[in-house]
Amino acid sequence: MDQKIITLYDRYTHSQLSRKEFMKKLAILTGSTALALTVLPLLENNYVSAAEFESDEITAEEITYPGVEGDMKAILAKPKGKKNLGAVLVIHENRGLNPHIIDVTKRIAAEGFIALGVDALSPLGGTPADEDKGRELIGKLDAEKNLQNYLKGLEYLRKIKGGNGKVACVGFCWGGGMANKLAVNDPKLQAAVAYYGAQPATADVPKIKASVMMHYGGLDERINAGVPAYEAALKASNIDYKIFIYDGVNHAFNNNTSPTRYNEAAAKLAWQRTIDLFKSKLA
Fold this sequence. Notes:
With 283 residues, this protein is an alpha/beta fold.
């Protein structure tokens, strides 16, 4: 697919560009409204096309934990019959706790960790079925309260039954930016992994105590613009970090429900690197 179309879709999903304006621009790029409507399903997440992750070795349930102003909804997944486990907080993209991120949470549990997929939209009623509505609601969250809700999620995991008190986080897109924020704001965090997420302010980087790992798509110019300054700040503060840029792949390359952006090879390599970090830091 033409990279200009993918770039337009990325702009649409990460800005206030209306669906009407997006479709108008998509029609211009494709040549007609009819072709735009044909291309659209290839751009949007398709949860049916990606098989739901299942494993007899884990349990998964809906839970709540205390947030700043009321309960936070979440999916808790963990290996059956195992104790003394490290825990991972999973942070969704800018549409809420959708089936893809629930699958990611289960996959982390299958790797031998307690995993908590938090619904950041809990204060606004939870993640809606309409992804566009979810994107709108994300923009209405109070930034400081949202951060505190995630910090409370980390504390919940530190005290959870069967855990060993060691906690990491992983986030994707909007969640990648939040993973970086948690690294800045939680000095007890063992590791933070950000997939194509916005970088923290360089002035805040010296606060990081966790090991951090970042995964970026080589074609993701919007997010990658902040990489050099972030890496320079990490080096200057002697922070344990790794940055991986996967050539020729797009933003959201890990999302197997996004057919035009998913890159299987990059996703598998990034996933293995992520799990290896968790195994080394959470044991």
